[in-house]
Amino acid sequence: MTTRSYDYLPKEASLLREDIFVKEQGFVDEFDDIDDISTHLVLFDGALPIATCRYYFDSGKSAYIMGRIAVAKAYRGKNIGAHILKEAEDQIRLSGGRKIYLSAQVQAAGFYEKQGYVTSGEPYYDEYCLHVLMYKQLEAGNE
Description:
It is a single chain. The chain is of the alpha+beta class. It has one domain (2-137): Gcn5-related N-acetyltransferase (GNAT) (Aminopeptidase, 3-Layer(aba) Sandwich), CATH 3.40.630. 24% of the residues lie in helices and 38% in strands. The chain is built from three helices and eight strands. Strands 1, 2, 3, 4, 5, 6, 7 and 8 form an eight-stranded mixed sheet that branches. A hairpin with a 2-residue loop joins strand 7 (118-126) and strand 8. The protein is globular and about 35 Å long.
């Protein structure tokens, strides 16, 4: 498997997000203004895009913001989400990032907790379902 990083929303990430968040989960629109300021990661199995996530630096919070992870249905349950999340965390760490925030769907909070994320505050309704704010403090790595 190979991960590619883009400073724009590539077609592969767009199609994965459309299939999962709009067609499968029923979100009205998965695309927004942070696509233009985000780094987009796409994990490929050969030439097939199988997962994607995005992140960007928020200067107001002095931290990175991570978007939802999208994993193709056939690849779920194979630790692919954890794999692409770790790749994003590694890139953020190498960029000097030390803290990541994300808004997780409540049903996905357990996944992020297993990856070292901590819940902050109470669940709230956003983007058509319940979410919870989570964060992770990154350790300094070998830069």
